[in-house]
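Exercise 7.
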Amino acid sequence: LPVAFLGLLLEVATAFPTSELPREDVEEGVTSNKPMRTTSEKTGEQISYLIKEVFELRKQLCKNDETCIKSQVAVSENNLNLPKMTEKDGCFQTGYNRDNCLVRITSGLLEFQIYLKYIQNKFQDSKDNDRAQHVQYSSKALIEILKEEVKNPDKIIFPSPTANASLMEKLESQNDWQKIMTIQLILSSLEDFLQFTMRAVRKA
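Solution. The predicted structure, written as tokens, is:
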């Protein structure tokens, strides 16, 4: 694996206590008789873990209020172009195309990075900030895993730095209420995107 990716995984591993990280079979394939897990299975475990962390972050934002957690956030005035799946992406049962789907998932997660950076900057409490940072690190680790599976990595779309800077400026210009609603919308959209991702990976 690339040195940069190994460094990223080390950062993820040290961000939280070991008990909060996905369990890895350290002796898998060495002293265990269990079959080796496939790449898709390992990817699925990483996605499941990230979904859990996003949900925990939403709970922290809502102060564990069930009505807040379950609410469908709609902030139409923001006109945020958050990543989502469409039929043309090849991730649905009809017209499923594994490589096109992986390209879309990877590109979508790259799009989410600027939003996750924004969220991290908004959490003042150290515990909330740590979890927000951990969600971003985990999503970056997932991106690197998916890149290894994509047959045509040149198709992956990387966000423009100029567009990201403009988006961040737009997000920062909101009033306090809009910022809270925007964070809710981002986390809810990311959770939905990851749920679609999980179903698509299981098809592989």
